[in-house]
């Protein structure tokens, strides 16, 4: 797994860690049941404080991406419902961006929908 | 006990590491060769304050040894006494050896002379150590010179005061064994009082 | 026994021209705490109080539940101490230090020490008075890490270290707490090192404790604002500290005042450095307005 921490990203470090682990799960880099590095190990590797990694993991746990097994550490749990929701959120977000662009360029609703269905045909959706 | 032993080791290291131990022994042998006598007291005196030289106010063992302030002080007193003991032991061995290998005829000191030596050294330590603990080496290094001058001035004053010098002459006619025992006993008591004073100084002190 | 490695309760120490007062903080097992503040804030005094080399006037200090005054020797056997001034004799060599530590500490590990001496490239037979500040620090660090301790107490440990060694130092610190049983308290005025790895921060200024708690909490309880002189006049709340230039001003505010700020000012998250610096600058200038 790759985790990159940026000091100039403006996001708190724990959020950066959380998002990147989430992406690794969503893209399938992490499979169900995969073990994650321990909180302290991850902190030492990333040169961040233990409290920071603890916070990232506990939020991931709350969101259903990972779960703690007493005495064994953290594992990836593929909560299908959860991931579907996460993807839907991403889709909405990006479509919204597309709509903003359309507005800015004066592209009509019909044109936008047409582009959308053309792209979907190309991708066999 | 372990805590004191640890501090004592630290004190001894200050002498060992200066590579002066060899010098110490060599000088001692030399002096012994010249004249076996009270002059040898200079040697333990020279080395007594070594641990104060090296360290910040003489008690940095507190930062790396599991010892308390009291332990450091006790160890320092023990260290000074060990120096004296080492001096006396070395001279006790060196004198017969010197007599055997050279043409000089050296005499071992008699027991009361040893006791006088002990009394003199112990009294000096009892007076000086609390000052070293209180003010540190840098401020106290001149005190040694002061002591030498002090002894000289004291000697001259005594000679000028008739009744005092008479009393001293009278003391010399008394049984030397008894006088030396009293002097040694008094010095030992002084050392214990000094130990208590130094301990209370160090316990209250911020290092 | 509590889960705390270190507990300071109402610690107070008076000097002729400086008073450290009401220092209260606790450090749980397995975490790193930074003690920050400008020079002369009382960081060293606090650390020396824990070592009992400074005799506190009132309050209590406990290490692993034991009072440091009553159990001096027992407490110290669990502490590894590193300071910016050398704790070993000037005339000693690394060899002498190894000899002493081996005889003083039953848990001393010669192999570990040898490895560190090699890694830090320390000469075995050179008297310490010929060592640079960084070398002395490395030696003290090697000595502290080569025996069983449950607590590292570090007084300005990174001052004499180059950037490469500072990085290695931080790595060693994190490895030390990785098992979850050991803790570290370190004082520093170079907060950039600390910012990332410290779980907790205790901030002292002028002998008083300004803050103790999680690092993120300290950072989020202040905000840094930048604006013009006109906007400065519109400030309703008193800033903690302010710096003015001919182009405008920068000020540190408590986050609770963020709503009362003029909309035009730029608001940023402060670094630990900003927080320390602005507390030192104070708001004298703003009261002159």
Strand order within the widest beta sheet of chain C: 6-7-8-3-9-10
| Largest interface, C-beta within 8 A | B-C, 29 and 32 residues
How many structural domains in the coordinates of chain C? 2
Q: Report low-confidence residues of chain C grouped into runs of 5 or more.
A: none
- The CATH class label of the largest domain in chain A is Mainly Alpha
CATH superfamily of the largest domain in chain A: Winged helix-like DNA-binding domain superfamily/Winged helix DNA-binding domain
Tell me the CATH architecture of the largest domain in chain A. Orthogonal Bundle
Q: How many separate structural domains of chain A? A: 2
Enumerate the spans of chain A where pLDDT stays under 50 for 5 or more consecutive residues. Answer: none
Count of distinct strands of chain C = 14
Mean residue pLDDT of chain C: 89
Q: Specify the biggest β-sheet of chain A.
A: 2 strands, antiparallel
Query: Which outline of chain C best applies?
Result: elongated
Query: Approximately what portion of the residues of chain C adopt beta-strand conformation?
Result: 25-35%
Beta-strand fraction estimate of chain A: 5-15%
Walkthrough of the structure:
The complex is a heterotrimer of chains A (125), B (207) and C (289). With 125 residues, chain A is mainly α. Chain A has 2 domains: 13-78, Orthogonal Bundle (Arc Repressor Mutant, subunit A), CATH 1.10.10; 81-122. In chain A, 60% of the residues lie in helices and 6% in strands. In chain A, strands 1-2 form a two-stranded antiparallel sheet. Chain B is mostly helical. Chain B has one domain (2-204). In chain B, 82% of the residues lie in helices and 0% in strands. Chain B has helices at residues 2-16, 20-34, 42-48, 50-54, 61-64, 69-101, 111-160, 162-173, 176-204. In chain B, α1 packs across α6 (69-101) and α6 (69-101) packs across α7 (111-160). The two termini of chain B are 23 Å apart. Chain C is an alpha/beta fold and 289 residues long. Chain C folds into 2 domains: 4-214, P-loop containing nucleotide triphosphate hydrolases (Rossmann fold, 3-Layer(aba) Sandwich), CATH 3.40.50.300; 221-286. Chain C is built from 11 helices and 14 strands. Chain C has helices at 43-50, 72-76, 94-104, 110-119, 133-145, 163-178, 191-197, 215-220, 229-234, 272-281, 284-287, and strands at residues 4-14, 19-28, 32-36, 58-63, 66-67, 79-83, 151-155, 183-188, 200-205, 208-214, 222-227, 241-245, 248-254, 266-268. In chain C, strands 6-7-8-3-9-10 form a 6-stranded mixed β-sheet, sandwiched between helices. Chain C is elongated. Chain C starts with a strand and ends with a helix. The model of chain C has no long low-confidence stretch (mean pLDDT 89). Classes of the chains: A mainly alpha (125), B mainly alpha (207), C alpha/beta (289). Chains in contact: A-C, B-C.
